[in-house]
Amino acid sequence: MSSDKPPSRFVPFLPLDPNDLGIYLELEEEVTDSPLIAFVRLIGDSPRTRCLRGALVSASGSVITPVVVKLRQEEAAEGFFPEDELEGLDASRDEWWVRTLADLALLQGDTSCFPELLLPAPDCSPLPTVPPLLFCTLLRRLFAVFCPTCLGPLRSYRAGTAPAAAGLPLSAGTEQRYLSCPQCRQEGRETRLWAVSPPVEATSGEVAGSFEDLQRAWAEAATRFASGTGHEGPAPPCLRCAMSATCLGGAPGGEATGRRRAKGAASQPLWNLFSSTESPYIVTRLVPASLEAFADRLGGRPDTAIPGLPDAGGFIFGDAGSGLDAVEILTLKLSLFLQILGCVREYHLRLRLPHLDLHPDHLVVDPGRPGELLPALWSFRTRLLGTSGTREVALGSGASVLLPPREMKVPFAAPRVREFSAQARRRAELLIERVSAESDGSGRYRIEATLRDPHGLHLRPSTHDWLLLAIPDGAEELGVASLVVRLDPRLGSGPGGEIRVTSEPVVLAPAAARRIARSGGLHLPLVRYRVYPRFTDGDDAFSLGVIFLRLLMVNDTQDLSAVAEVVAGTVRRATAAAPVPVRSGSFLVESALSAALAAHPNLLTKSNLFYRQIDRVPDRPHAVPDTLWRGVLMMAFRLIEMGINPPAQTAPVESDRLDAVRAEGEGLQRQLHAVLFRRQGLNLEVQALIEELAASDPAKQH
Ligand SMILES: [Zn+2]
Ligand SMILES: [Zn+2]
Fold first, then answer.
1. What is the mean predicted confidence (pLDDT) over 147-174?
2. How far does residue 217's CA lie from ligand 1's centre (Å)?
3. Rounded to the nearest whole angstrom, what is the distance from the C-alpha of residue 247 to the centroid of ligand 2?
4. Which ligand is nearest to the CA of 238?
5. Which of 146-155, 388-397, 414-423, 594-603 has the lowest mean pLDDT?
6. All structural domains of the chain
7. Mind giving me the DSSP string for 174-220?
């Protein structure tokens, strides 16, 4: 396997030169040496990672299993959280990878809810990385960006290790990154820094070479190598290749030799920069089908190519003509959803955190092994991809808050997640009424105050939520520039737009504490605040409800946003109209459902289960009993209501309510099975009887 001819579409990646099993990356096309050839990217990754499709390839060259390789995305999209303090972790930082790996390790085990982690070992330290890489489109090989002097791999030159001494800006944060050769430095040779990414003009002078400088140096190295100056040890594969000068593009003296090049590509080197810094990696087994494609296939969408599935058929009652095919579709879609719910509950149990980023791109379906007893569509298994970016972060000394991932997806994101992502720090005034010294002798104080926002307080903070106040002049007057506060129920509530808060203990300037005590208060006309809601699994419930609507209602003419808007809007209106004691729970959900069905009968009708218009015509047989259809809608409404009226709960994850919905779904599932398998062939009168039975089923009384 160490030959220069890997299986034609696959490029060795881990290791770069495998003798045995290896992880390979997949190219988009079978045979081409175009400089534009690209690796197959997968959806579902965040702007700060890139997910590539690959395979675990055996020593004999056969594909054992398809895999996903997740790498750091170097040029991330900008624009999340322009604000400074407390950003969620993202994949640009190594810590994100360490924690993601630890989470993935927790999610491994005997359930089939999550993709299997193949590499690296979750507890290995330091975090393994791949070096900066080049890709030769001619040889179709990846190899380390190499030092033109010793041909060894170049490495990122870390901030603080010396560039300041060399008269260069520190390469911290997102600015210029440099590569340098650790081998040459260690052996006392003169070493250059190379500014590879982002590319710079060649003006950075003698100290840092540009990418073009590096290419010229490579060309010289290739010439030296070709003239046999006796280089020992490993060398980049292209230098051993007869076409080496071709790969280097405008290499001196190399242009005329070797193969003819297409016009216009003459000055285009065949080496592409694959990555310009070290990147951590996570390799998981690939689950082939996307949730949305699979759901559409269940609804009868033709021409959906799903790996591992026949293009058509796969049902038991597919052409029965009795309308039982509708019951089968609902059974399968409900099953699909209950698997998703099961995955999310498993995620909650193992990580003790809400996910907060549930949407179809994070869910995949394995259609199951063909050739077993059941028809092809009855063996699927859904998995929740990886972990979300939701993190617990310390705010001040004692408070800890959950930050949702930076990217959120509408209409799936829960209302609180959306509002949180959209909020800028708001202005308010703060009236400090009292300071009280902590009794622990730490010299710290708690501040009691009234926070007043003339435009109404954002996100309606409750006693479970934290607020961060930034006090522009606070450092001078108080000795602190920010306060972490929360609603204090002991202080009672003020009028609208005003809340009474108590701070976490802070160290105040001694004069300030005395002055506040003496004058009986302090008025700060301008503070800025930001609310950190206590996110819970109730927020996940909302996303689950929208996902369920997606599975049930979306077809070739109806899209999700309209449906989700109608459902959420009806729940909101029903909440506003309900008497205060029943502003949540079953009564509210029932009345919202009835109102939505009355106002939008077509939008929510059961024929939407079918993907094609031809199956949704009025006189087509449809054997789903209306009570079961209503029961399924009730589940979706119930989940969405949980996110709109989040109940107060102390722990981020409390299993009861989601488990109740799950039990409700399993009850409906049993009734659907009864219609399919025990009552099959009975006439409509008996079906009406089943409906009555279903209506009196205690499982419906949640
Ligand atoms: Zn070197
Ligand atoms: Zn090459």
1. 62
2. 12
3. 5
4. 2
5. 388-397
6. 25-54+63-126+281-286 (3.30.200), 132-277 (no CATH), 289-389+537-700 (no CATH), 423-532 (2.40.30)
7. TS-EEEE-HHHHHTT----EEEEETT--GGGTTTEEEHHHHHHHHHH
Query: ipTM value of the model?
Result: 0.96
In angstroms, the Cα distances linking 651 to 289, 402, 418, 654 are 34, 12, 21, 6
- Residues with C-beta atoms within 5 A of ion ligand 2: 136, 138-139, 238, 247
Q: Give the span between the Cα atoms of 42 and 383, in whole angstroms.
A: 16
- For ligand 2, the distance from its centroid to the CA atom of residue 157, given in whole angstroms, is 26
Ligand 1 midpoint to CA 211 (Å): 16
pLDDT at 538: 93
Strands 49-57 and 22-26: antiparallel
Confidence at 333, pLDDT banded by 50, 70, 90: very high
- Range among 345-354, 424-433, 466-475 with highest mean pLDDT value: 345-354
Alpha-carbon gap, residue 83 to 89, rounded angstroms: 14
Q: For residue 159, report the distance from its CA to the centre of ligand 1, in Å.
A: 20
CA of 276 to the centre of ligand 2 (A): 18
Name the closest ligand to CA 145. 1
The alpha carbon of 492 and the centre of ligand 2 are apart by a number of angstroms equal to 74
Measured in Å, residue 128 CA sits from the centre of ligand 2 at 26
- Ligand closest to Cα of 186 equals 1
The pLDDT tens digits of the residues spanning 498-533 come to: 889 999 888 888 888 888 888 888 888 889 988 899
Q: The tokens of 348 are what? A: 């909650």
CA of 74 to the centre of ligand 1 (A): 24
H or E segment to which residue 119 belongs: strand 117-119
Q: Which of 677, 671, 606, 670 is CA-nearest to residue 636?
A: 606
Structure tokens at 612: 């094609």
Tens-place pLDDT, residues 450-462? 999 888 887 778 8
Which burial class, exposed, middle or buried, applies to 18 when counting CB atoms under 10 A from its CB (0-12, 13-18, 19+)? middle
**Which sign, positive or negative, has the C-alpha torsion 578, 582, 587, 593?**
positive
Please tell me the predicted confidence (pLDDT) of residue 684. 56
Which ligand has the nearest atom to the CA of 243? Answer: 2
Query: How many CA atoms does the CB half-sphere of 322 hold within 13 Å?
Result: 15
Minimum mean pLDDT range among 24-33, 390-399, 691-700: 691-700
pLDDT in tens, 186-204: 998 888 888 876 655 544 4
State the distance from the centre of ligand 2 to the C-alpha of 240, rounded, in angstroms.
9
Ligand closest in space to the Cα of 221: 1
Cα 701 to middle of ligand 2, angstroms: 69
